[in-house]
Specification:
With 365 residues, this protein is α/β, with parallel strands linked by helices. It is 41% helix and 28% strand. It contains twelve helices and 15 strands. Strands 1, 2, 3, 4, 5, 11, 12, 13, 14 and 15 form a ten-stranded mixed β-sheet that branches. A five-stranded mixed β-sheet has the order 8-7-9-6-10. α1 (3-38) packs across α3 (63-89), α2 runs antiparallel to α3 (63-89) and α11 runs antiparallel to α12. The chain starts with a helix and ends with a strand. The relative contact order is 0.12.
Amino acid sequence: MDELKQARLTIDEIDKEMASLFEKRMKAVQTVAEYKKANGLPITDSKREAEIIERNKTMVQDPMIQDYYVQYLQATMDVSKKYQTRLNSGSKVAYCGVEGAYAYLAAKKIPGYSELVAYSSFEKAYASVVDGTCDGAMLPIENSYAGDVGSVLDLSFSGNLSISQVIELEICHALLVKPGTRIEDIKTVWSHPQALSQCDEYIKHHGFATIEYPNTAIASKALSESSANDVAVIASPENAELYGLEVLEYKINSASNNTTRFALFTRSYNKPDASSKMGEHFVLVFTVLNEAGALAKALNIIGAHSFNMRNLRSRPMKSLMWNYYFFVELEGNINSVDGRDMLQELNTICDKVKLLGTYQMSRGE
């Protein structure tokens, strides 16, 4: 065995031991968090952190490695503080938009959240989970009227977060106005392009002009701060209370079955019990060779193991022209014997196979 292989084997063994010790350490951190909460102590204790670093760095003799060990200690303590904060305060969930956006309403359905954090883009919300600022990001993946949210699917393919929950939220668009505004006063409506599209028949019927906004809630907020009395916004009814507006008409959608599916992206992965058969779903993303029959082979493997596909989408790969990745949602338990065998077989014919997450479907009632 050459030196490189031996070194990697050694690292693998050490990593295994460190994982076990890390879990043991975090259980002790949980006790610390409980004590701090019970006694009203702050999570951060800068004096103790400095003492630990000064004391522990002397355990490493090599001066060059010692510098890196100090960074390792600080990173470990930072992770510990984030865990304590989550235990004592609940989880932080990121979303795109402002208070009242549909993503905000979906995020409120998550049990145990403590804070909803607004970001200006899907990418920034996703990145907040990657860097540990937030514990999850609630992002839309599909609308029954407008179709896929391609930019979020692309993030799921290129990023390293997992889908741990999917929520179906019925989209109820309402016409919101400043108090006292009548339907005959309205000349223009403000909203997100998709909301305007989904209410196209209503808008044309009344002859309204339209102005696009990045988000339905942003449009609501803008109207509340405006002096215009001939403007309405299309948004969820919840925005009326949030921004001091009135609901002039409910459910103005052209399609009555307008639903958006939101996915909660997290750093952790849900692993179902191998024997579970109740309501399990999972998501795979994969690429195949650019040759005849390659996709059919992958789908045949999925079918041979009796997994039902809820949907299959293709998206262009940004780095390779005329190459695509596939996003597929399936029903069943990926941790079953059939699931594990299916993944093994897919790996033999696909360039890349990624288990994006497992979840149980829930409706945002």
